[in-house]
Amino acid sequence: MDEFATKVLEEKENFAKGEGKEKILLEYISANPTGPLHIGHARGAIFGDALTRIGRHVGYDVVTEYYVNDAGRQINLLGLSVYLAAREILGLDVEWPDEYYRGDYIKDLAREAIEKFGKDYFQEPVKIVEKNGKKEGVFEDENLSLWAKDKMLEVIKNDIKALNVTPFDNWVSERELYKYWDEVREILEKNGALYEKDGKVWLKSSEYKDEKDRVVVREDGRPTYLAGDIIYHWDKFKRGYDKYINIWGADHHGYIARVKAAIKFLGFDPEKLEILLSQMVKLLKGGEPYKMSKRAGNFILVRDVVEDVGADALRFVFLTKKADTHLEFDVDDLNKQDASNPSYYVNYAHARIRSIFRNKGIDYDDIKNVELKDLTSDEKDLLFLALQLPYVLEDAFSSREPHRLTNYLIDLASEFHSFYNKNKVIGSDRENERLKILAVVGSIIKLGLSLLGIKAKEKM
RNA sequence: GCGUCCGUAGCUCAAUUGGAUAGAGCAACGGACUUCGGAUCCGUAGGUUGUAGGUUCGAGUCCUACCGGACGCGCCA
Does some domain include residue A109? Predict the structure, then answer.
């Protein structure tokens, strides 16, 4: 054990590092660029980032990717919403359709759009038509839609940064992928995946576990969203990774079968695609359910929560639980900066250790050559647990369950606090041995937290 | 109705993937050295793991049915 303890202190943040494992493409968040990230997105974001950090540390070549849904109806709806909001600001008549995005960010965008495009741009009223019993706005100006989309992407990038999520390696645009549609369609046809019916083109996804076949080209010739996703996965698989991981919101689970079917029809191995679901977060506020709807504009912004409690506390809360089970918590609880927040518990353990070294006026390096022998059982237990980190990391990544690392850190902190209350360090006749053990524990906590994207506190 | 997932202490969640007496935190109660930082520690209490069967040496974990909940069942994304 002494040998490993010394290794922890010598290698510091490089302890338990591996290399040369599988190449993995990890796609996550991929929220529509039609609004800022809300608390539901945060769970997937934090989950994906923890996986990335842990995976990279233990030696996987993890490449991260965000798929930008910058085509289709939602983007059009965004442009329409900004246009209408601008007219309202300008004091012009507005007839509201049934569906449009609202919320302060739309108004902010509208004000900016007036600056950028000029007042005259918004003179023409929006025609409203009845479609399937719903009032729909007719809006065809791509310029405003795409401009608004780019603005939203900037906002999302800032939200990602605020969450302390490692910057993405790739941003892939759905819009740009459609130019490969003919090529992909040819492959599908050659593999007998498509047929025509009622003037539409269908994918035989029911041949591979899907409930029914799916339309990929509409009657008017426009490919559907699924077509875009097929192109995207074709593009992914062509890039030749060992494994592909997608993190989706659990509400998309019904989509898995058709995408896997498509991959098979493209001639690739669907087993290489692993889809992880991040369950919805059920939020309460003051004990009452907090209903989130993007269109209604009453959702909790990542930005606001981070401003309120900090990214670290939010990350810790999410990373203590499995990502694919339901999670419920009260927004008001995030404001409580007390013991009910386990991130304080772990951080406190670290801060205590640092405090001991401050009092002693030395650092970890100064005691790394102390030989550990004849350890008491308390000392042995604590050191042994701290040295489990490499196994925990391996396990947390291969099971895709970063919460195992978090719970391990809570265990380790608990073991330490207990030890601390029972055993004097400074001034004891085993001072040097104990300092070395605490140095190991401190290093491990710091490293573990950093792999969760949390910075260990020196003082609290 | 069909499909996917879930149901563990009053509350929020764990349980080394089928292993020994199901564990933490919060809430409750009782204690701890005038502190190497009490944001801590020690203890008490709290459970027939939704219900009923089944598989086996062994089930919170696997299978079946039922009860309860979430989500999906768009030519939206």
Answer: no
